[in-house]
Each structure stands twice: as C-alpha cells, then as structure tokens.
Amino acid sequence: MKIYNAENQILGRFSSIVAKELLKGETIVVVNAEKAVVAGRPRYTLEKYAHKYERGDPLHGPFFPKQPDRILRRTVRGMLPWDRTKGRNAYRRLHVHIGVPDELKGNESSFMKVEAADADKLNTKFVTVGEIAMHIGAKKRW
To answer: How many of the other CB atoms lie within 10 Å of CB of 100?
Structure first.
C-alpha cells in the first residue's frame, strides 16, 4: 500500500501517476485531496467545472461529483480503462480522503509526493480542488 499526499500537486499529472500505479496492482491511498491544484486561470477553471456539474439532468446523468475527494477520484477514473475489468478492479484499489484520517496520523513522514506534479514549479495561476468544490456547491467538511 502506498500513501500519497495530494497537497500542492497538479491534479492531472498527479492523477496519471496514480492511475499507472493502480494498473500495476498497487493499493493507493491519497490524503489531502482538497489541496490538489488545477493550473490555469481560476475564473475559467471554475466555469469549466461548473459546466461539468450542471450538464445532463438529475435523473439520467451524466453525474459529476461535488466533494473534493470524489473529484480527484473521478479524475483518476478518467485515466483508467473503465470499460474493462482490469480498470474497474484498479479503481476499487483507490482510496481518497479529505485531510488526513485518524488511522494515518503520525505517519506523515511516510507520505509520498509525485515530483513531476509539484505545483511549486508553476509560473501560472491556479485554483485548488477545494475551491472548485465550494464553487460547485459542496458543503464544507474539510
């Protein structure tokens, strides 16, 4: 089992690495999902995610999540072969948490970060997944 810290990580790059690890057969736990970032102009990014949430209808979908942990999980799902058995099995091995759960507290030194997804290297504006969730209409629980 690998534990990744999503704090200050670029969502797309981070998700692609996690998806590859899942397809290798690893069990992945992601903490601090609300602190992952999406690069780009904040206003445009918020509008894009609001459009994803609002399209379709409430009975037939497509359904898009509001909570930050579910948004990160859905992003990883988009990078897996969801229509195949191996993709669905890999998705079941992914566990995403808002913040750090009680059973993982004290192990912060063992949390891994993806070097290629570090947002400190960004020269552009960005918005966090938590801010996107609040804009869509999530109730704050983090």
So the answer is: 17
* CATH number for the domain running over 2-136: 3.90.1180.10
Tokens found for residue 21 = 């690890």
Q: Could you give the CA distance from residue 142 to residue 139 in angstroms, rounded to a whole number?
A: 9
> Does the model's pTM come out above 0.85?
yes
pLDDT tens-digit profile, the chain (142 residues)? 999 999 999 999 999 999 999 999 999 999 999 999 999 999 999 999 999 999 988 899 888 999 999 999 999 999 999 999 999 999 999 999 999 999 999 888 889 999 999 999 889 999 999 999 999 999 887 7
75, 11 Cβ separation under 8 angstroms: yes
Name the residue ranges covered by the structural domains of the chain.
2-136
Q: Which of 6, 140, 1 is nearest to 76 (CA)?
A: 6
